[in-house]
């Protein structure tokens, strides 16, 4: 099949059905036949259907489909029970299960032939693709895809590209929330530094303006211009759960805000930055749309310089949020104004830095060398704590990730000019002083057969943060 012909998926299956003479008995009869295993119980297919006789169907009469194994045999000499239409054959009771026989004897039902018609809507994506593709190409039928709003994003292997439009059309048919199907035609980041990718539309309109919801936050963006990966939802949730209310977080490569906006909803102060102007516009929209402007500040700067500049600006910024009581009234209703219960002051230092650019984020770490020069420290409280850095990266994959952990730490050490090793992070009270240098490695997800994404978390050593540069 070169073009999808939905009519080819029409099939008639000869079955038998229990004709229920009085509709008020349908529910009871169905329950009895299901218990006795006589009723047909099939995924995506109800057992109650209109009577196969068109005149009876017009009057609303129903029947219950029976399993194909239920035997049917007409007697040559049969009497017509009360209420039966002329020509209805009485079935031989001993061919049925006791339940079916009893219902027939009670004249509650009659067993009649039924042609079950199945059309394209009944069959699953896998059923249809299996029927379309040649047998020698069914070793690994393409079924996985990422969905971003109404867009389904495929990564088709070369051998399936000749069937790409068929695959996309069936996928769209079988996933009601999908209106556009695209296929990625290069790796993320190959086109430019903003982690976007070139694509081709396989089905539906070329409409990449999407709206999604994650962690009770709504994001609206042009998927062709910004980076988004729905498979990172679990990682977004994990990291945000580490942040505590009232802390300050510097999200250096914030994208459209999957870390920043949910954190803002938790009462966490986030300075969120992204180099991509389109990401910045969508981030601004997300901040307003989710009403977190008191906590989340968007920026559009280069991440390498932003790490230091944001640290210096935060040290001299005064900002607080008033936590108010709820009045129980609607905004437009007159009444008692909410009372200020407490205020939360934005810290002078960041407790966390997030660097979510796994292909190159580790190369941004030299920006932490000399993070707190004298000009910044003079604005900070005594004995302030060194921040935690959560830097994402790619590495190889193994059963225990041990070699990968050492390789990641070796690269972090090289970038910081300070020895870092896998281990448990020192406590906040230890203040990141000499002798710390521990890195906790978190396995995020597989991205390819031999490639894995990790998050390396460490506290910036004080010797690194105050080093003269």
From TrEMBL:
Belongs to the TRM5 / TYW2 family. Belongs to the class I-like SAM-binding methyltransferase superfamily. TRM5/TYW2 family. It is an enzyme of class 2 (transferase). Residues 37-60 are annotated as: Disordered. It comes from Salinomyces thailandicus. Residues 145-462 form the SAM-dependent methyltransferase TRM5/TYW2-type domain. S-adenosyl-L-methionine binds at residues 236, 274-275, 302-303, 356. Coiled coil: none annotated. GO terms for molecular function: tRNA (guanine(37)-N1)-methyltransferase activity. It catalyses: guanosine(37) in tRNA + S-adenosyl-L-methionine = N(1)-methylguanosine(37) in tRNA + S-adenosyl-L-homocysteine + H(+). The lineage of its organism: Eukaryota, Fungi, Dikarya, Ascomycota, Pezizomycotina. This is tRNA (guanine(37)-N1)-methyltransferase. Keywords: Cytoplasm, Methyltransferase, Mitochondrion, Nucleus, S-adenosyl-L-methionine, Transferase, tRNA processing. The gene is TRM5. Monomer. It is found in: Mitochondrion matrix; Nucleus; Cytoplasm. PROSITE patterns: SAM_MT_TRM5_TYW2 (PS51684).
